[in-house]
């Protein structure tokens, strides 16, 4: 059985000064995670890094797990808000144009703080063990589904939920692997074009691409 999910906050800040303290604590959490790793991180170290007492930290966050959860929520909420805003002007664009813009946006988010992206990605299994649902991914899937739904008649997959699952996870995996293994690709427009071609080819394959293969098989059968 998964552990009971740790709450990310003990209480929410209500004044600007309190919000500044919370922001400083979360910024310190990110720095400590990057420098020391999750196992070595502690609330004492994070409080010291933030320049606050550990008592002040505990006013807002109940534990190290709560700090990491809050940092993940903050980071992903910002990314999701930017992604959602970026989808709006793409609604009427041709699918290949829109797909390239979407992939550029995903890569731009990855480039903002690549080390933090990697650390948070590695912590996702822990969050699942804590029993936390990935609300970010659920919302992301809903946004992509809403974007593709008006185009359904032009798409090959009939099961849109399955298509969104395949598309989102494929693009995310390629972008994340490029970030960790081939960072030179993250800045390369050709990489964007290749992922876009992969995505569009899955969603809306051109009939012309299938005909040469059939003709080749027929010639091979006659030989």
From TrEMBL:
Q: Which residues bind DNA?
A: 42-61
Tell me which InterPro entries the record gives.
DNA-bd_HTH_TetR-type_CS (IPR023772), Homeodomain-like_sf (IPR009057), HTH-type_TetR-like_transc_reg (IPR050109), HTH_TetR (IPR001647), TetR_C_15 (IPR041669)
**Gene3D superfamilies xref list:** Tetracycline Repressor, domain 2
- HTH tetR-type domain: residues covered: 19-79
Keyword annotations: DNA-binding
Which molecular function GO terms apply here? DNA-binding transcription factor activity; transcription cis-regulatory region binding
Look up the domain of life of the source.
Answer: Bacteria
Q: What is this protein called?
A: TetR family transcriptional regulator
- Give the gene symbol: uidR
């Amino acid at each position: 059985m998964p552990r009971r999910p740790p709450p990310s906050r003990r209480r929410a800040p209500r004044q600007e000064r309190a919000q500044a303290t919370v922001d400083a604590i979360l910024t310190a959490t990110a720095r400590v995670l990057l420098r020391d790793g999750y196992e070595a991180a502690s609330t004492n170290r994070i409080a010291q890094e933030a320049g606050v007492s550990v008592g002040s930290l505990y006013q807002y966050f109940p534990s190290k797990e709560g700090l990491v959860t809050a940092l993940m929520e903050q980071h992903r909420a910002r990314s999701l808000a930017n992604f959602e805003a970026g989808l709006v002007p793409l609604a009427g664009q041709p699918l290949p144009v829109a797909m390239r813009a979407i992939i550029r946006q995903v890569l731009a988010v990855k480039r903002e703080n690549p080390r933090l992206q990697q650390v948070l990605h590695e912590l996702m299994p822990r969050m699942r063990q804590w029993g936390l649902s990935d609300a970010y991914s659920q919302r992301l899937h809903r946004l992509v589904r809403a974007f593709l739904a008006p185009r359904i008649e032009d798409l090959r997959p009939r099961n849109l939920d399955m298509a969104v699952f395949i598309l989102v996870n494929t693009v995310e995996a390629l972008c994340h692997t490029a970030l960790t293994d081939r960072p030179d690709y993250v800045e390369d427009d050709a990489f964007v074009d290749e992922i876009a071609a992969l995505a569009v080819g899955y969603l809306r394959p051109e009939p012309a691409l299938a005909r040469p293969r059939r003709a080749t098989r027929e010639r091979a059968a006659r030989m």
